[in-house]
Amino acid sequence: MPKSRPAKTSNVEPVGTDAVEDIREAVAALTREDRRRSKQEKVQAQTEIQAQTAPASDPEQTTSEDTDPDPNLSDALRRAEAVLFAAAEPVSAETLAQALPPGADVARTLMELKQTYAGRGVQLVEIAGKWRFQTASDLGFLFEETREEERKLSRAAMETLSIIAYCQPVTRAEIEDVRGVAVSRGTLDVLMELDWVRVRGRRRSPGRPVTYGVTDAFLEHFGLDSLDSLPGLEEMKAAGLLSSAIPDDFDMPRPSDSEADEDLIEDISEDPHAREDGAFVTDFMTDSDD
Prior knowledge:
By secondary structure, this protein is of the alpha+beta class. It is built from 10 helices and 7 strands. It has helices at residues 17-53, 59-66, 73-86, 93-97, 106-116, 155-167, 172-179, 185-193, 216-221, 233-238, and strands at 91-92, 122-127, 130-135, 170-171, 197-203, 210-214, 262-264. Helix 3 (73-86) crosses helix 5 (106-116).
């Protein structure tokens, strides 16, 4: 029979439960530390890449942005916006300047405010040298159904208004010469009631005829910045605003505000010898109670 060998005994002592837990905690701690370092290195690398690719800052640009030449601009914009919003009529730059902070640039304030509202439903526009907020022109269709139907002017009134706008200062007789027909008193009355036409003064000629011109309300209603914005003669004919009775060789003069040939008056009612129809009345022609 073969002899049995004695079993070998191990000199390694069994690891206790506490030692195993310590090893596991140590491995977990090393794993967390490795992940933290890896994350920090990744963030640092991204930061370096961004710093290399970012455009260099312009010191002059930074200085100009940080240093505003008009520190009151923000306050001026708020005040101008409030005044224009609450105004029932267009506001002039001179009137607006009274509401702005001392030293504020009115022109810059208006341009900044106009740019701010550009492309919006309400825009800042200049009409007859004054400023107002109004609905954007491309949104006018939103109000077509709710707008009240306005009274239409007769063809005679439109022709008379056109002649006054282009030929002012103009007398009633001169209007009749251009149209080729008599101008009724009612036509001029309607235009003056609309505040589109006013009496400018009297011509320095025999009979002292009354001269007529258009008003700022006329420019505002038709969206004109000034009389220079009026369309040409051919455009007026194409729009049907001038009668075919006007000679083809008639040269429509540009409007003039010259006072060389007339005596201006603020209100025709101040002249005891004037009537709205342009006729000259002497003292003995006036009605008397005696």
